[in-house]
Amino acid sequence: MGELFQARTVREARELLGGHIKTTCPVEQVQLLKALGRRLAQDLVAVDAVPGFDRSTMDGFAVRARDTFGATESLPSYLDVTGEVLMGRDAGTAGVVGVGQAWRIPTGGMLPPGADAVVMLEYTEELDDMTIGVTRPVAPGDYIVRTGEDIAPGAGVLPRGHILRPQDLGLLAAVGVDDVPVFMPARVGIISTGDELVETREQPGPGQVRDINSYALYGQAAAAGAQPCIYGIIRDDFKLLLDRLRQALAECDLVLLSGGSSVGARDVAARVLDTLGSPGVLFHGISIKPGKPTVGAVVDGKPVFGLPGHPVSAMVVFDLLVTPLLKYGFYLRDQLEFPVRARLTRNMRSAAGREDYLRVRLYQENGEVIADPVLGKSGLISTMVQADGLARIPAEKEGIEAGENIEVKLF
Amino acid sequence: MGELFQARTVREARELLGGHIKTTCPVEQVQLLKALGRRLAQDLVAVDAVPGFDRSTMDGFAVRARDTFGATESLPSYLDVTGEVLMGRDAGTAGVVGVGQAWRIPTGGMLPPGADAVVMLEYTEELDDMTIGVTRPVAPGDYIVRTGEDIAPGAGVLPRGHILRPQDLGLLAAVGVDDVPVFMPARVGIISTGDELVETREQPGPGQVRDINSYALYGQAAAAGAQPCIYGIIRDDFKLLLDRLRQALAECDLVLLSGGSSVGARDVAARVLDTLGSPGVLFHGISIKPGKPTVGAVVDGKPVFGLPGHPVSAMVVFDLLVTPLLKYGFYLRDQLEFPVRARLTRNMRSAAGREDYLRVRLYQENGEVIADPVLGKSGLISTMVQADGLARIPAEKEGIEAGENIEVKLF
């Protein structure tokens, strides 16, 4: 069955999946403080200007800039102090800064009418309570944040789909958005298959191992903002697997099968995936290492992945094909997926036409970032634990030599 | 008051704080699936070997390696198929792989006694049900994961203080740790000060602005794994601030004051911090931009920060001085804090002796990572929203020129 399919590149796999996935994430309103890490469900537009008034950025004096032109330390411009701006008060009702006049103003204070700049305290000398000398000229607009300079009224504040970071919470607070429309987290069903698997709390007998993938994938799904749900360990049996998969598909937005690296188990998984619905299996195998024996399917608009049984392989494929869907709802283009460039410590060979993913330890040496590969079989979860990131050897390269740069993403 | 203190470098500030902070985080047990992102409270040691038996990494035949020596496609080694390993079953009870014999074995199956290697299916030809020809030799250990090769019994699995990632959940599942001892999240009290501040849901009048910092800092604390708590907006009044700060200190492990960028407000905050307890204020000003007017204090072992009022400044200081404490409980040395090296798009000047932090947009161009500074005053939260990361100009440099590399950390 798998022989009918050619192995796909990561890009092709994404395009195939992207063309068939229909995501209709429901929306909920959450209180601003609970919105961190959530995905915005609509474009947000500012109603008011931020700040709502011209605002001083320094402690000093609000002045007419032209009254300071030519001022020097030896020949200060003398101004009459005729008022004071109080923090948080309306400075527009108590008069005007006239020609040759100055008002005291604190950092963050509202610029009074008539003034068009602020002179820093450091560049003034107080002659008496009523008179200052300005020792440096200012230009109109100096030391002021203009009305709407942070956020203009009517401006787009944050786009639909944006994942909210701490600064975004700050921005939404500034424009008065206290309830935020966000997408509900995608529900991810996780099924482990394999006659050899036992639960974490069980003691494995000879020939048995504890289920690693359910936990690692649960963690990856949660880290991507989704709501994972574990459907347990299923024996390599067509009927059992089909029933559990149908249940997971009914209850979730995306389903992961993992395990079944043996030919027999792979065949069962592939037959089940092809039985479920349309369009069914889209690809069978991706040209990466580790992670090749991956099955990608879409059933009634929902993605279903048959991930390899080896934990490292399953996690690499999750990272490449599942994480983007959970975080963004689709595959982004031109994303900076591997932002770190690090110097590789040893030669690593790869086959042309295949992307290789290396587990790497990262450290700093003389200001340079160094990537040291963690060697070991893809069945060893400990190699992922020892690593700080995942490095990529592109398909067009046959390897990367010691001392060359490699692209890395951090775990 | 501030004049008595010289501005500290980030490193000095960390050392001063680190020398006085006494952290005694309580510990709780959480179920493994809830442990993502939590900090491990003790060293964990493996009891059992993982895997608990020699395990095949391929579909094929379990053999004695020496029986395959010299095998080629034209002159295969012929072996009698005398058994089959079933997935998840004990292969140690049904006999031994004898000289000239082979057992069928699936990926993940238990190596039967007598065998010391696996021959991949691809390098065998089946002559009849009872006989195979091996067309390539294998060495002892080939295509096998040895008992304890992933995790040796008695080996340290994860160290105290480690922050649990998805792969770490997988590792703990593998060794049977279903309840994980983790530190309770640090409680962070957040107080905003300023006569100009109003709540998010209020409409600011002339001279008023909505409180941005409480929300941005709440987000940063939550992102660092802490449990933030907002203590509201306090007027610039000694008694009010002292009372609220005492309450926050009694209830939290770390307290943040933000706001009060005007000289008057700064003085109030500093006097309050010096009143609270011993040793009190440790530094007053750090030699960074933005973020200079930062007060660092420790009161009865708990850190208290007086952060600048400008949102960008407050967030930068939080990132440098608060995030490490919340994530790790102390300041790490030799950490890869700024892992991305990106080419700067324009000349950026800096003063020698001062670290400058730039907000930067990051993108990729011809395989290179490019950092484009987001210019704008530190009072503008929108500049943080437009940025993808924070770049650093070290204190010993007077700037970085267009085309040179700059160190960046991603938001």
TrEMBL record, chains A, B:
Belongs to the MoeA family. Keywords: Magnesium, Metal-binding, Molybdenum, Molybdenum cofactor biosynthesis, Transferase. Transmembrane segments: none annotated. This is Molybdopterin molybdenumtransferase. The keyword Lyase does not apply. It comes from the Bacteria. Its cofactor is Mg(2+). Catalyzes the insertion of molybdate into adenylated molybdopterin with the concomitant release of AMP. GO terms for cellular component: cytosol. Its EC number is 2.10.1.1. Pathway: Cofactor biosynthesis; molybdopterin biosynthesis. Pfam families: MoCF_biosynth, MoeA_C, MoeA_N. It comes from Desulfoscipio gibsoniae DSM 7213. The lineage of its organism: Bacteria, Bacillati, Bacillota, Clostridia, Eubacteriales. The keyword Transferase applies. InterPro entries: MoaB/Mog-like_dom_sf, MoaB/Mog_dom, MoeA-like, MoeA_C_domain_IV, MoeA_C_domain_IV_sf, MoeA_linker/N, MoeA_linker/N_sf. It catalyses: adenylyl-molybdopterin + molybdate = Mo-molybdopterin + AMP + H(+). One of its GO terms (biological process) is Mo-molybdopterin cofactor biosynthetic process. GO terms for molecular function: metal ion binding; molybdopterin molybdotransferase activity.
